[in-house]
């Protein structure tokens, strides 16, 4: 099992345990894309690119210095695929808090 953090638009993020990519795909609602934010080194954000402009926006990210938005569900996971640690969860919470 892998510990991830799931953030839905207009809701607080929650910790989840997943067994693999099928559950990851289910959490984001379809085919997914992996993106990163310049401020969360070592953590990847898994999103559904088809949600762009269709589902509610979730929060802004900065990738390679450019501002972008995450739409729909977002799953935070370690970039190497391992479980998030308590320190990682704290960093993500600070990141999300700064986004308002």
UniProtKB/TrEMBL annotation:
Pfam families assigned: DUF3846 (PF12957)
Organism listed in the record: Brevibacillus brevis (strain 47 / JCM 6285 / NBRC 100599)
Annotated InterPro entries: DUF3846
Superkingdom of the source species: Bacteria
Annotated ranges, domain DUF3846: 3-91
The protein's name in its UniProt record: DUF3846 domain-containing protein
